[in-house]
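Example for reference:
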Amino acid sequence: MENEIDYSGYTLSELKEARSTIDEQAWPDRARMLDQLIAARESASMSSPEPAAQPLRTVPVKFHGTTGEFFSIWIVNLALTIATLGIYSAWAKVRTNRYFYGNTDIDGHRFAYLAEPLQILKGRAIAVVLFGGYFLASYFNPLAGVIVAICLGLLTPVLVILSYRFKMRMTSYRNVRFNFKGRFGRAFVVFVLWPLASLFTLYLILPLALKKIDQFLLESSGYGEKSFKTRLNTGEYFGTGIAAGAIAFGIFLIGGIFMAVGIFSTSSGEEFSSSGSLVFTFGTFAMYFLAYVIASGFYSARIRNHLFAVTELDGIARFSSEVGVGELISLRGTNILAIIFTLGFAFPWTKVRTANFYAERTQVAVLSDVHQVMEGYTSDVGAAGEEAAGLFDVDIALG
């Protein structure tokens, strides 16, 4: 006798998927029942259409990697990269990404990183040529170097789009690739004109510029044929940005006062004593460290939570993030100190620790159209944009 399964909670798409997996000869009654349910559901949808994107379940993001496993990968990558004068770094990047992608789990399925080392290596070769041209121009003629730097700055939108297109196309989930369809014209406005406008307004509209960047990156991204949709709030960016700026200013103001008092109390006459120099060096480092960790931690936590709360993968998933400001500040601060005091050997621990931290504070609401996603048009993209963008420090990433 067949085991009975309750299909009453299944959506039409899930019923069809279940029917396609049934062996009619082995389970004739179950196949007949599914045919009847599908027919009834399709008939009912003619007069009362089924909601397009109803939440089915909410699942946590899980990260299964461990420090020990990644340390063995990292130390081999480091040794071979040094031994090959950097050539192996392309293979190192692929191994690292495949480890972290393959250990990130949503709803029982893991991500995959599809890039090959030679793609990365070719991209880095082009990036080295670009950097070499800039270096040579600057060395032989400073004015030419400035001109080349301006040209590279104007190429930033191209580098960002090529970088994101490559990253997204090399990422898959449930055998469906992500994609990026950002246009160069809009990218020029977002990555060149808005930052320039921010500069000429003494950074008064910097939060708006940052919002435009996040909005562009999200709305240009997709999964198969589905696109991300977002409703970013300008007030959230201004409020968070102003508060982060105030925090940094307060740290420098209070730190400057304490440093001045310390220098004055340890110095004699008009010259710095050795103790005064030590106070100045340590105080400067401490102020920059605290300003970066606290202000950036506050901004990143608030904006990440907001981004996730107002973003949806059309009909596929909604997201939520519960990153605490204090938690993120503590994470970043201890990570930096651990790397400094272990001369870099704590890097694998901080990397795995950070992945676990974000995974544990992220949830995904799976929607009813999840089984209808179709992989969009597949086109070859190169790694040149990603590597060149990373080399010139314009490789943009979402928290």
